[in-house]
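Late entry, written up from scratch paper. The run itself happened at the end of the previous shift, but nothing got recorded in the book at the time, so transcribing now.
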Amino acid sequence: MILKNYQNLETERRSIIQAVEANNTWRSSCINLIASENVMSPLAEKLYLSDFLHRYAEGEPFHRYYNGTKYIDLIESEVQGLMGDLLNAEYVDVRPISGTVANFAVFSSLAKPGDAMISLSTPSGGHISHNKYGAPTALGLKVYNYPFDVERMNIDVDKTRRELKLIDKRPKLFVLGASLFLFPHPVKEIKEIANEYNARLVYDAAHVLGLIAGGKFQAPLEEGADIITSSTHKTFPGPQGGIVATNRDDLFTTIKKGVFPRLTSNHHLHRIPSLGITAIEMMEFGKNYASQIVKNAKALGEACYELGIPVIAEELGFTESHQIAIDVSKIGLKGKEAADLCEEANVIINKNLLPGEPLKNVKDPNGVRIGVQEMTRFGMKESEMKTISGFLKRLWIDKENPTKVREDVVELRKNYSNVLFALK
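Output as recorded:
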């Protein structure tokens, strides 16, 4: 590391401000298709900037270790109830500051070092916090992966049952949910297996929480999951943060201790009012929003496929979520190159491993992942998805200059600058 000798702090101040302003201007002219991002409503953004930015409220509502918390107590208690109603959960903790922290809290509360857990591998879509590179290894857990059926783009339940008999540990945790998450997971079937081992089933809803809240994906708790963990800023268009939800009071009592004091002290109070506003927005508009997200994802998949772009899972209808995945290696590209070309044209996507691909390809995989939830919130529908597919064809197949494509991207984006499905 080279230490800088700052001689002019005014120059550094201007540099930071200008970079923020430049990013805001640039992003407002981009079509953002990152599957893990979204935007809050103007009202939620307004409430995000408040005196709560500066405050602490260790503990639970009405049972704090600090004074001066009477208003956040009221808000946090209300938000717990709102999120519980959306997820059909009796117990909700909104204090985790991210989905990964929520996972860490649950895993550390329900398993001990040396225990085994079952999750999806990274190439099969599993999140880093489910795998040996993240929370499980930090907690001393031994990770085994579900067998994955590439043709069905889902967990192979029968093979899972067979292979579990061969491992040297009885699993304590079964984890569902993924980063590449095209189709609902077999919650009921995996719960039946988990019961055979007296294990807990955790469903990480980070990518699909908004679809679940809108009734357009699956209902994990009703289907058998013991616990939902999630972030709150992907298809659920709230502030960055995390939650834990369950109907098991015995598990919740234990998990709450994992959240506080084990992993959090202050839980970033300023995001809680914004989460509450977003929950109300999802109650009012979530069904229509989630429905349009899925329609748009399917429409983008179909339009890309018709233009010769190799979208995976064509036989399955491409997707049932907000995402599609594309094997760009079939058109002579790698994931990084494809994503870089898009960024030059103000289309933002990410490279992504595809199921069956070796983990060694992680830095430059064969695939890209695309999510439509943010542009759906800006009002784009199926016809715009067809236009976007044309941008991708021009960049990847026709080899058109990205600068030329960018002109058309910016022109399209001008018409979609207001957040919809939002409270005024």
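The chain has a mean pLDDT of 96.
(Scratch paper discarded after transcription.)
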